[in-house]
Amino acid sequence: MGNADPTSPCRLARPLAGAGSLWIACAVAIALASELGRPSGIDLIHPTFSELIFTTLGARLVGISMVMLSFASICIIFALIDCQAPTGRLGRMLIGVWSVALVVAAIFPPTPVGTPPVWYDTLHRYAALVGFVCLPLAGIRLARRFQTHARWCRTATAVRACSTASLLGIAAFVSTFVPTGQPVWLVGARQYSGITERLPLASNIALLATLAAAVFSASRRRQPASMRG
């Protein structure tokens, strides 16, 4: 890539970003179907998204949604690479870890709340935590590099905002699991684990969508005028 012609079009970036966007849309649609399929009605506040596997519809769809989001992330990072975005090795590695963590969390389900933890439940929870931390860290890294490049600086603010919101959300989510005798705001407030998990999840989806949109914009500006129609 170091010898690539900076005036050449990004031949695979747009198809990859399009595929990533499609995977995101499918993942969101399936996640919404899982939420709407709860027998007692939709509840975004209390149960976590992973706990939807204990419903009839969620048992089939939750893992599929996670894997689709992983595929979306892989497509988008390769689109960024093809478009010669200033991602840096660390940024790409963090997005890769997020992608793998999603698949691991999808394969190894949690156990019902209140039951003794088993090894696959522990693996699910730690994989999810690692993934939720890695993607916004990657976003902050990318935003820092984007702001020094003219073709990407417009995206830096949105990427940083999504990443910061995600990190704040995951901190709030983790705080609900802190064992306390009496909940203090969100600390130890397990009844709010659902909403505090969905906030960083939504921020991560917004981050991926922002990166996909940035690829479309940058790849179009990169094309010679004769190719733009």
Could you explain the architecture of this structure?
The chain is built from 6 helices and no strands. Helix content is 66%, strand content 0%. The chain is mainly alpha-helical and 229 residues long.
Question: In summary, what is this structure?
Answer:
The protein is 66% helix and 0% strand. It has 6 helices and no strands.
- Structural class designation: mainly alpha
Number of helices: 6
**Molecular shape:** globular
* Major beta-sheet overview: none
SSE order: HHHHHH
The number of strands is 0
* Chain-averaged pLDDT: 90
Low-confidence stretches are: 1-8, 224-229
Instruction: Calculate the terminal CA-CA distance, rounded to whole Å.
Output: 27 Å
Radius of gyration: 19 Å
Q: How much of the residues is beta strand, in percent?
A: under 5%
Descriptive labels:
229 residues, 0% strand, disordered C terminus, globular, mainly alpha, single chain, 66% helix
Produce the secondary structure layout.
Elements (H helix, E strand, L loop, with lengths): L12 H24 L21 H25 L5 H20 L11 H28 L6 H23 L17 H30 L7
Helix pairs in contact: 1-2, 1-6, 2-3, 2-6, 3-4, 4-5, 4-6, 5-6
